[in-house]
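Section: protein folds

Sequence with per-residue tokens
===
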Amino acid sequence: VYGSCATGDTYEKSDLDLLILIRDEAGRCLAEGFILEDCGIGYDLYCTTWVMLEADAECGHPHLGKLMDSKILWVRDAEVMARLEDLRTWAASVLASEARFSKAEEALGRAKYAFAECCLAESLSCARYHAAGVIYEGLSALMLSYGRYYRRGVKRTYEEVAAAVPAWDVRGATDAVVLAETPETLREALAAWLRDVRAHMAE
């Protein structure tokens, strides 16, 4: 179990996030999405592979709660837990080492690429689409530079970023992008946002 049910950050519509680890790639065909009719809570059921967890452990992004903080309810054999703990140890070592800076720079590079696409967009909707990529990758760069990963749900993103960089009003800067009403004002706000990220990244 990971996510809000593992952290205790639940509310009436919280779902149950399960890490279901399979040994066979074909098992991913078991994926299913459904809504519980009695309470209206949506669920997405899909399996995770070792390849996916190994990629997470390389820390190319800070969404590592599933890997790092899952509470194990059942496991078939001890070797699986040993392998999982090895991945957790590796990810923690990356986040604590100088390697995290190169991971952060790679994420910042992806943010800059998305910003270029935003600048080339002709419509507001397309500009907003690429702006979302800038924000996702920019915040990833910021968190990785400080050796941090998201421990709570998406709804707590602002809080977790603010804890890492209390000097930056991440909510206000992001709202300026989200509430922009023209491609021009969006790009202007987004450029300021990206400069803020670069200025606040750990060195």
Q: What stands out?
A: The first strand starts at residue 21 and ends at 22. Strands lie at 21-22, 32-36, 41-45, 48-49. DSSP finds nine helices and four strands in the chain. The mean pLDDT is 90.
